Each structure stands twice: as C-alpha cells, then as structure tokens.
Amino acid sequence: MHFKSNVCYNKNMPKVINHDEVRGKLLSQCLNLFSHEGYGSLTMRKIAKALNVSTGTLYHYFDSKEDLFRQLVEYITHQDLFDVEKALQGADTFSERVDALLRFFIDREDYFLNQVIIWMDYTRQQGEGTEAEPGPREALVQYEQGIIRLLGIEKEVARFILAAINGLVIQRYIDGGRTSLATQSILIRQYLLGQEEQGSL
Amino acid sequence: MHFKSNVCYNKNMPKVINHDEVRGKLLSQCLNLFSHEGYGSLTMRKIAKALNVSTGTLYHYFDSKEDLFRQLVEYITHQDLFDVEKALQGADTFSERVDALLRFFIDREDYFLNQVIIWMDYTRQQGEGTEAEPGPREALVQYEQGIIRLLGIEKEVARFILAAINGLVIQRYIDGGRTSLATQSILIRQYLLGQEEQGSL
Amino acid sequence: MHFKSNVCYNKNMPKVINHDEVRGKLLSQCLNLFSHEGYGSLTMRKIAKALNVSTGTLYHYFDSKEDLFRQLVEYITHQDLFDVEKALQGADTFSERVDALLRFFIDREDYFLNQVIIWMDYTRQQGEGTEAEPGPREALVQYEQGIIRLLGIEKEVARFILAAINGLVIQRYIDGGRTSLATQSILIRQYLLGQEEQGSL
Amino acid sequence: MHFKSNVCYNKNMPKVINHDEVRGKLLSQCLNLFSHEGYGSLTMRKIAKALNVSTGTLYHYFDSKEDLFRQLVEYITHQDLFDVEKALQGADTFSERVDALLRFFIDREDYFLNQVIIWMDYTRQQGEGTEAEPGPREALVQYEQGIIRLLGIEKEVARFILAAINGLVIQRYIDGGRTSLATQSILIRQYLLGQEEQGSL
DNA sequence: CATGAATGAGTATTCATTCAT
DNA sequence: GATGAATGAATACTCATTCAT
Fold first, then answer.
1. Full-prediction pTM beyond 0.90?
2. Which residues of C touch D156 (CB under 8 A)?
3. Distance from CA of D123 to the nearest CA of C (A)
C-alpha cells in the first residue's frame, strides 16, 4: 500500500529484513485459509504452501500453529478499527447513515463472514478454561460503538442490529446464499427508521 | 452397500440388538463433542472414549469419521422437527405466541448454539465443491416455516427473526455471555408486535 | 524361554495379547540400539525398523521416546540381579571365586559395556535437575554387594574392583580393544590375592 | 582443502583477526556443551547461542557439526599434553609422585569426566566402520606414558591405574558422587606402594 | 567477517482405519 | 458384535545447512 524502504545498513551487514512487516504480510494471507479449512483441519504445511514459504519460515515468525492463529485473530481484530470509521463519512440524514451502514456490511460480506468464523473457532479453541484474552469480544464492542456513533441509537439496539447482521451472514453461509441480502436489508432499514420515528432511540 | 439385518438373534434369544437404535444412541452423544472440539480437532479415539466404546465399535456403526459426522448432522437436523411444533401449543394471542417462540429458543440456547456450530462446520467441510446434500439448509427452512405457522408472519420477516436469534446466540458465544438474552428478547418482541399493529404481516 | 500360554477367552473375544510381555520383548531388543547410536541420535523410526514394528506400535507400548528409554534402563538394571548370583556357584577357594568374578565380566564384556554406556546416557539425560530416580545407581550397588558376598571383601575394595573393571571395559571401547583383558585380569587377580594375604579384607 | 590466510587486514589496519585463534576460542567453550548434552542432542543453534555468535559464524569456522565435534576432540586431546607434565614437577620420592598423580586427577575430575564422555561419544559416532582417526586412543596412550614416566612403573600397571581412575570418575558420575574419591585414592596409593615394595615394577 | 532469514528433509508423535480374535 | 493391537501416512515442529546482505 504505502511505500516503505527495506534497506538499512548495520555494522556487520547481515541480511536486512523487517521482521514485523514480514509477519504482518504472512498473517494477512491467513484469514481465508483458517476460515475455509478450520483451525483443526488446516495444517502448517497447507499454510506454508499457500503462502509460498517453507514450514521452517513459518516457524521463524511464529512460535506454533496456535501462536499463529492467535496473532491472526489479533491482526484481523485490529484491522477493522480503521475501516469501521469510513462508513461514517458523507452521510447526513439518518436514512443515509443507515444505508451507509448496511452497504458497509453488504460490501464486505465475505470478509465479515470469515471474521465471524475465525472468532468462533478462536472461542472454541480457548475452551472454557481461559477467560483471559478478550480478542473477538473487544472487536464486537468496537463494532457496536461504531454503530452507536453512526446512528446515535441505544447500545442494546445497536447490539441487536449487529446480531441480526451476524445472523444473516451466517444464515447465508449455511443455506448457500439463498437468503437475500437486499430484502433483509430493507427489513433492517424499516426497523431502524421505525425506531427513529418513535423517538425510542 | 451390502445388506445388513438390523435384528440379531443369539442362540439364547435374549440379546436382541437393533443396529439403528444403537447407532442413534451413539449419535445422540456426539453433538457436544463435535461442537466443542470442532470436526478437525475431534478424533475418533476421543469420541470412542467419551462414548465408552472402542474405536472398533465406532467403525462397526459408521464407515468413517466423515460418515459419522454426516449422520450426526442428519440426526440433529431431523431431531428438531418434533420439538419446534411443541412451541405452538397453548398459546392463543399473538403476544403469547411470540413469547412462546422466544422462550423456546432461550430455553434451548445451548442446544441451538451447538447446532449452529455443527452446521457451520458441516458447511465448511463440504467446501464449495459439493452442492449435493441439503442438510442444514433444510433445517433452516423447517425453522422458518415453523415460525411462519406459529406467528402467521411473512417468510422474509420470519427469516429475519431467525437470523436475529441465530446472531444473538453466536454473539453470546463469542462475547462470553455478555449480551443479555432477556433485553434482546424484549427488542425482538417489540419489533414483532409493531409489525402486527401495522398489519404488515 | 519358558512356556507361556497366550490364549484366553474374555466375553467379547477381542484380540488377546499380553501387553507387558510384548513390551518386555520390545525392550530387550533396544539395549544395543541405544548403546550404539546414543539417545539423541537414535530415532523412533530406526527403533521401529530394527524391531520390525511400526512407529504406531512403539507408541502403543510406550508413551514417548523418553519413556521407552527409562523403561529400558529399568529393564536392564533389573535384568542383572539374577545373573550376578550365578557367578557365586561352584567356586570354593578365594582364588577360584576371584576367577569366577573376572570370568563373569570378561564373558559379558559387550553387554556390560552397553549397560555402562546406557547408564551414562541416562545420567546425562536426567540433567542435574532430577535427583529422583535411582536406576543405575541402584544397579551399581547391586554389583558391589554381589562382589562383597562373593569375595568377602570390604565395601570400598569391592567398589574399587568394580571401578577398575568399569574403566577397563570403557578403555577397551575407546582404544578399539588394544587393552588386553587377559593381562589386566592378572593384575586385578594379583591385587585381590595380595589383599587376602595381608588379611586386610 | 583450500588455502586460507589466517591474518586479515582491514582497510584501517586495526582489526587483525586470526582465524585459528578464534576457532580455538570457540572450541574451548564447546567441551561442556557436548559433554552435557551429547552429540546427538546438541544442536548448532544451542552452540551458537551458548557461544554468543550466530550459526553463520559457526559455519564460517567449521564445515559441519561433525567437523566441529572432530576438531573439539582433537583440541581437548592435544590440550592435555602440556598439563600432564606439570604433575611431574617438584615430587622427589615415589610416594610424593603417587600423591601428585592422584591429586592431578582429583583436581581435574570434572574436566577429566567431560573428556571421557566426549571420547565415548566420539567412539560411538565413528561407528565400527571408520578405523582411521586415532584421536582419543592417542590421548590414552599419552596419559599412560605420562604415568610411566612419572612413576617408573610397567606399562600394564600404568594402564591398570588409568583404567581404575577412569572407572572411578564414571562411577561417581553415575552414582551422583556417592563414591568417595579420598577413600578410593588411598586404595590406589596402597596398591602402588605395595607394587614398589615388591619391586615388581 | 558476521548475521539471521530461509529451506526442506527429518523428528517425535498422532490419527483414521483395519482386522485377528 | 466388540475389542484394542497394529499400521503407516500425516501432523506439528526442529535442525543442519546455505546464502543474500
């Protein structure tokens, strides 16, 4: 995307590589893999092959398969923060902002589905034992607050909208796309406009 | 492939084993296992140990791990048909029927979550290649029609409600139960009652 | 060696195998392997191939490579207890008993060398951390006491004799057999007979 | 194989690096590593980390892990030649020289043990195939002749003494130091003094 | 000279599956 | 029908080694 020089000279002239940059580049290619195969079924060899590197290289950048997965979750979770805000711009009326929101999700349906699938795998992975790492939970809150800021609605309503969108995406995944996003969007739209009329926001 | 008698008579006639019955009993114990571990991470040995049988026995009743999983999906998919109808009984007014529906899902949240998780794993498993087996898709339609029959609402609205419930359950899974089912139920309730008033059903 | 029936019938007629017996049979073939290759260089695949079984079978009987090694140490350590006593029989005079002892070690030089090598690898394996498992230490004491009982000499003298024999075997290992066991035996013999004359036993 | 200058002049003349010197410095730090981990279990990365250099540097000075090990054996084998002679000085009577010898080994027990362990690993490494390189065999002969020169005893007796000391060190390794070096030294001392009295040297 | 990123064959271990009993 | 011993391909991960910088 943006230009970044890879060249630098240190005293003994070893091969110069920006570790974190490479790591990020690798992570960015992993979302689809994990989402399509599932944590348990995706092998390090498959990943290596898909990323055109050796397994050794994978382990050079990540401690383990689990570590790679965790970093992926963190990566995609943070990635969104910028994007969500974009939906805010250039929409004046409430109706326009609702449209912007729906469009945001419709345009990114695939990415959003992958994200939810990863989150579910991640949640499963942790088991009930670990309560520690927030990860996806945080991301959900981010989405929620983005919706609240955009539409100026109550937290519980925003959460409901998010759940509905989540559910739609998943339903389309399961039923092979038979659910119509266009039609369902209209329903969500009507609901939100109705809420505004009632002043119950 | 080959013919297999379901009834077996020992010389002493006491022990009659019904192949399908045993199979069903085994399947019924697998939902949690697959849902908690994921298809890729669950091993036949874990299953065998959890069901208190040997792996040999597992392979006596199922051709492969994949076959077992498919049969499980079929099993849980058909299992619901009976249950859904129960929600219909003893609810006269529209409001009561809405309550019955919400209660149905809230009471069975765990089961419903497991079911959705399995469906997602199943969908993933099949890949884009196989278009053949409907499975979960059918089940979703069943739920949809159950809701239509119960509430007398339009198909797209029923689908929306289902998606919202789906989404809620998953959101609660991901955020560790932070989303309140009670509060969200009220929103769904308000939405449905509002729809009825408008006569837009 | 001795006859042992493998046949038995349990209620469901599964394949009947004496787990421990097979395990022992496998262990008995591992001494040379570990001794010749060294713990770190010997692979499970090499072991499996040498024992004519699959790696899976190896792991059916042993938890890990380390577990296999530990059990091997225990196995060879206990194996000796019977053999040491044999050297006692049919030797009346002190001189005869000394000869019996020397002959015992000379005849079993290879086995004894392997044993010492394994013990050293085992000691190294444990690191300084674990003080727990006696293993080889016990075996050394057994040898010591066997020598004491046989020759009626003091503990420290017995220990000295054992050390000398240990050292000889290792020296022959390192120098490719250039040290003569016959000549050295005479020295040990002279030393022991000298000790007896002095009555310093 | 190819010629390699040991001296290197940078353009600014300050940094003169002697290839062999650096190599020796590296080797001198490897004895403990190989002895504690064992050839098969010690990795080039562990070595590099322990020596505070990169693996690349290691391969700059040594062709391979095996080459490094061989050079280490050669290094420690030659290192001793000087030290052994030190034990000779300032000991006039036979008794004093015996004490000097015993003290020599007792003071250097750890180093001597490491050395024997390395020799055994080296012997194992070569397998029966290679008869070529003498290495440790030579070193044993050196020790032997040093003892002969020091005490003026017969070759086979010197060899016996060496074997006993070897055996003692190893026995202490295996039994965790339970064997007393002091007590055992007295036995060796008595034996040697007895030999002298008999004039059987 | 020195570095450490990259490689891919190799390591310990696991897994779905088979089959003799 | 039921068992669990046996298999060997596959898995996560490591290692000696190379090489661009």
1. no
2. 180, 183-184, 187
3. 6
